[in-house]
Design goal:
four-stranded parallel β-sheet, alpha+beta, binds flavin-adenine dinucleotide, 24 strands, seven-stranded mixed β-sheet, Guanine Nucleotide Dissociation Inhibitor, domain 1
């Protein structure tokens, strides 16, 4: 499709979707390298995309996973009804993320519109601010101040960030036009925060502090974004430009089906391996254990697992959260340059917590006779729950309520609480908003909760780059281009959410996995078809803009 917005840049305007869908495939590996082993550390979506594509090319991915396949696409079943899941990590996937959707479609997964605020899928929204509740079916039902905030945001994006212009270039897949606009924004905004943008944009100049506050609480599509206010404005530009806040869908049965599906999927066109081969079958059904050490051994890389077994590989891909490379995994220092270590270590993570309950049915759709409104709506509030989402699994199925999805300080407030305590706190908040609704009377089973920062294998939810971090992002992203690197640093690759330009979005993690596939194939002497150049073939021309260090 040539006429719709996709995540074509803005940093690296390469059409991953076209590369994936081209009949020539992602390239070919020389026959003497076919069957060579490649270690893939981490079985999240980045690791599984890479393992799947490396297998298709005729290499042998050897996947290591300390926990469970899926990583931050974790769909936790409720004990009493295991087909009903709580989406602990990624839960809504914008259609513009076409590389991720390539795999969602390949696996034939069913998807539905995500019930975001003020969208028909919700289908009603309550915004509760400073003790006042506003009920709306669409944005036009809200008091005028909300429209003023929304208009100012859109105007600011167009006036300051040339949003319409860059999106038009992204739709045309015009890499030079995208880069030209983006270069100026990187120069102007790498040092500045999201809050700075809201406070200083001319479109907000005539509006009050209250408008900025409402903007922080209600956000611009999926919820309040004030927790991102300290982050680099470039992070926010990317999300908006790529259309990630729009047209979002959830995966029926859970997003974990994507990495798990790739583990079990037998590709049609596969080099070297017998038809029917899967990543699972190359592993006798289970990944290898967690990794504890990575060292150089001559031209090979030595990977040690937590049971003390050591195996060597000509190439390895690391997809774990980058702080783990200096904490729980003993990685030989000379494997990365000091500049790359600086980037890996300075990367900043966002905290996030979610608390879920299962309810007997989607009772919230029933009309409260006293108010004439549904018993509950998608709810955005400045109270501690922040965002409450209602997942309708059908009238004859239990529903799921995301009682609270909160970031940063709001996530930290509940860090020390049990799932039960968090659920109580959230229910009390919702009872203060929905005075007549007996939420407790509908809950079945035990609540499920997550704080990603409390998990030793994640240490945070996703990257949230601070001002001045553009160079760090670029160092990590461009690491797959290894021709100029000293020999001792070659053969080890990085991918995943932390390496991505759009952290917190699985699409970006998939892009980095595909970059790594190109880099690893190249290491083995592999080449792409001239008709279907890969990311590394065009990186010198359209790769991310470089800012000087000195
Ligand atoms: C709360 C939350 C909400 C999100 N919402 C969305 C959303 O709505 N839409 C969206 O598109 N994206 C969303 N994301 C982002 C998305 O989930 C991530 O971009 C994506 O899942 C990252 O995949 P990954 O493979 O890069 O990393 P991960 O999934 O973290 O995979 C890394 C893997 O490495 C494993 N590991 C760690 N240490 C070791 C070791 N020593 N040895 C072996 N394995 C190890 C981990 O167990 C993990 O499985 C969200 C993420 C979070 C946390």
């Amino acid at each position: 499709m040539k006429d719709r917005l996709t995540a074509f840049g803005p940093d690296f305007p390469f059409a991953f979707d076209d590369w994936l869908e081209h009949p020539e495939g992602l390239g070919a590996i020389p026959s003497d390298a076919l069957g060579s082993e490649v270690a893939v550390v981490g079985a999240g979506v980045a690791g599984m995309v890479a393992a799947y594509e490396l297998m298709k090319l005729g290499l042998k991915p050897v996947v290591y996973e300390v926990g469970r396949i899926g990583g931050r696409l974790r769909s936790e079943p409720f004990d009493a009804a295991p087909h009903i899941v709580a989406e602990l990590g990624g839960m809504r996937f914008p259609k513009s993320g076409t590389a991720l959707w390539h795999y969602i479609d390949l696996l034939g997964l069913e998807t539905r519109d995500f019930p975001n605020p003020l969208t028909p899928a919700a289908p009603t929204t309550v915004i509760d601010l400073e003790g006042h509740s506003f009920f709306a079916e669409s944005a036009s039902d809200l008091p005028g101040v909300f429209a003023e905030v929304s208009d100012a945001w859109h105007r600011a994006l167009d006036e300051v960030a040339h949003l319409s212009e860059i999106q038009a270039a992204m739709i045309r897949k015009d890499s030079s036009a995208v880069r030209e606009i983006w270069q100026q924004l990187v120069d102007d905004w790498d040092d500045r925060t999201f809050y700075d943008f809201v406070a200083t944009s001319p479109a907000f100049a005539d509006l009050s502090f209250r408008h900025r506050e409402i903007f922080g609480q209600v956000g611009f599509g999926t919820g309040g974004w004030d927790s991102d206010f300290p982050n680099s404005m470039l992070e926010i530009f990317r999300v908006v430009m790529a259309g990630f806040e729009e047209d979002q869908h959830f995966i029926v049965g859970g997003a974990e089906q994507v990495p798990r599906g790739l583990w079990n999927h037998a590709p049609d066109n596969i080099a070297h391996w017998e038809p029917g081969t899967t990543v699972a079958s190359l592993h006798s059904g289970a990944p290898r254990p967690g990794v504890t050490g990575i060292r150089r051994a001559g031209s090979q890389l030595e990977i040690e697992d937590r049971w003390g077994q050591t195996r060597t590989y000509p190439a390895a891909l690391l997809t774990v959260q980058s702080w783990l490379l200096t904490t729980s995994i003993d990685v030989e220092e000379t494997l990365f340059s000091q500049k790359v270590w600086m980037a890996l270590d300075r990367t900043k993570y966002m905290q996030a917590s979610k608390t879920f309950v299962m309810v007997d049915r989607p009772f919230w759709k029933e009309i409260d006779p006293q108010t004439g409104r549904p018993k509950m709506s998608m709810t955005l509030t400045d109270r501690n729950t922040r965002g409450t989402y209602l997942i309708d699994n059908g009238d004859d199925e239990p529903g799921v309520i995301v009682l609270s999805y909160a970031w940063q300080a709001d996530a930290m407030k509940v860090l020390a609480m049990t799932a039960g305590e968090r659920a109580e706190l959230a229910i009390e908040t919702l009872e203060a908003i929905y005075l007549n609704t007996d939420l407790r009377g509908h809950i079945i089973g035990e609540p499920i909760t997550v704080s990603w920062e409390a998990d030793p294998h994640f240490l945070g939810a996703f990257k949230g780059a601070l001002p001045g971090h553009y160079r760090y992002n670029r160092r990590m992203h461009s690491h797959f281009m290894q021709a100029e690197m000293p020999a001792e640093q070659q053969g080890i690759f990085l991918a995943g959410d932390d390496v991505s330009w759009t952290p917190g979005w699985a699409e970006g993690a998939v892009h980095t996995a595909l970059n790594a596939v190109w880099g690893i194939a190249n290491t083995f002497g592999g080449r792409t078809s001239p008709d279907n150049p890969g990311p590394g073939d065009v990186y010198a021309d359209i790769g991310p803009i470089e800012l000087p260090d000195e």
